[in-house]
Design a protein that fits this description.
By secondary structure, this protein is mainly alpha-helical. The chain has two domains: 222 residues, Alpha-lytic protease prodomain-like (Up-down Bundle); 72 residues, Alpha-Beta Plaits (2-Layer Sandwich). The chain has nine helices and three strands. It has a three-stranded mixed β-sheet with strand order 1-2-3, covered by helices on one side. Helix 3 runs antiparallel to helix 4, helix 5 packs antiparallel against helix 6 and helix 8 packs antiparallel against helix 9. The protein starts with 102 loop residues before the first helix and ends with a strand.
């Protein structure tokens, strides 16, 4: 046993001073500052991670290792980059004794978040004002619908017409959905950031799905209205809606003309903007069909045709359902991250067979492919190779195979058996 060193004595009292534990060095390699006598060691060893949040990182992060050359090419082939796992410790505002942020720093962070939200809203408004032609046309159409629904609401309140008030609320809700479509057009122009790493393009898909869902609900409500009119025989008291239907039809025809290039039921979506523009066109087209059905029903009733409103509203409900269902299915498939509809399942099976037929490949598993937005396909899969085999030629072959298939972003995990 080594001989222990005697504890030092206090010259004023002659008593033995308490032994302090030896000063420990930090696991991050920086020197611990001199502490006052009351600040001793509290039992945290140098490698303890519980105080890591209050220390400045002084270690050097490992350089990412990639099997591909570092230079970038103009091809769309995705490169695989693997790096060692590490914890990124942000720089803190603590003092030299490891104390945390004060109340002023917390308030400053909250204020900065509020300012960033305000700045983001202002940037969206600026994007709308300086947007392209479809955005400006949609803003004009929303303004016309808001003015018309406000006038219809006031007339319905002062004249006591419940049908006008109900139709005004229906138009107001539709204007809200069109406003969301306009917001999605403006926000999707923002570039990807640290939080939304894929950008905001999927907002347009969400807007298209919301419009389609609303139109399906409107189709169901029109069918219920037709059934109610058939049971109660209340067709006569709605003749005054003919003026409202004609005015609404003129406004919606203007919107259909604005987006006339998307006035089709089935359309091939090449970009996220195509899906959003198509949903706006179908929205105003469905409103036009509804107004035309009310006008036709009023005309038939004036000719003495019985149950004319039931027949016209039933046809309108079926027409809206058939027009909107393809958009609802396409946008829903993207949000549910189903396999890309533009690539047949037989093509994925063929690629899987070609990869497994390689000599150094043992198994291919966890193959997942989906669409982020129309025209942007993403995939990931795991490839198990034999031990000692070179994975670089296999990676190049897999990336080229799926790139030719239409997968822009591919992540491949290689496991050596």
């Amino acid at each position: 046993m080594e001989e222990q060193q005697a504890a030092p004595r206090d010259p004023s009292t002659g008593e033995t001073a308490p032994r302090l534990p030896p000063r420990r060095s930090s696991s991050f390699g920086h020197r611990i500052p001199d502490q006052p006598p009351w600040a001793g060691d509290y039992g945290f060893v140098g490698g303890d991670r519980r105080l890591a949040f209050s220390r400045q990182p002084s270690f050097r992060q490992p350089e990412p290792h990639s099997p591909f050359p570092p230079q970038r090419t103009q091809s769309l082939r995705a490169n695989l980059s693997r790096s060692d796992s590490f914890i990124s410790i942000p720089s803190s505002g603590s003092d030299e004794y490891g104390m945390g942020y004060g109340k002023s720093a917390m308030n400053g962070g909250r204020d900065s978040r509020n300012l960033s939200l305000l700045h983001w809203m202002v940037s969206v408004v600026q994007a709308i004002s300086s947007g392209n032609r479809p955005m400006k046309r949609l803003a004009l159409m929303i303004s016309l619908n808001v003015a018309y629904s406000t006038a219809e609401l006031l007339i319905g309140i002062f004249t006591g017409r419940v049908g006008l008030v109900s139709d005004a609320f229906h138009l107001t809700f539709g204007c809200g959905l069109l406003t969301f479509s306009l917001f999605a057009m403006a926000a999707s122009r923002k570039k990807p950031d640290g939080v939304y790493t894929y950008g905001y393009k999927r907002l347009e898909v969400l807007s298209a799905f919301t419009n389609a869902l609303f139109l399906l609900f409107m189709s169901f409500s029109i069918a219920v209205e037709a059934l109610h009119a058939f049971i109660q025989d209340e067709s006569e008291h709605k003749h005054y809606l003919i003026v409202s239907a004609v005015t609404n039809l003129l406004v919606n025809i203007l919107g259909v003309w604005f987006f006339r290039s998307y006035a089709r039921v089935n359309i091939v979506y090449r970009k996220a903007e195509d899906m959003n523009y198509h949903s706006v066109c179908l929205h105003v087209l469905a409103d036009s069909i509804r107004s035309a059905g009310l006008i036709l029903a009023s005309w038939f009733l004036s000719l003495g045709v019985e149950n004319a409103e039931v027949l016209c509203l039933g046809l309108v409900s079926v027409a809206i359902f058939m027009v909107v269902m393809p958009l609802f299915r396409a946008s829903g498939n993207i949000l549910l991250q189903m396999a890309p509809a533009s690539i047949p399942s037989s093509a994925f099976s063929k690629c899987w067979r070609q990869i497994t037929s390689l000599e150094d490949v043992s198994e291919v598993s966890e193959a997942r492919f989906w669409e982020l937005v129309p025209g942007h396909c993403i995939g990931s899969l795991s490839v198990q190779v034999k031990r000692g085999a070179e994975d670089l030629p296999i990676l190049r072959y897999v990336h080229g195979l799926y790139h030719d298939l239409g997968i822009q972003d591919l992540t491949v995990q290689v496991e050596h058996l």
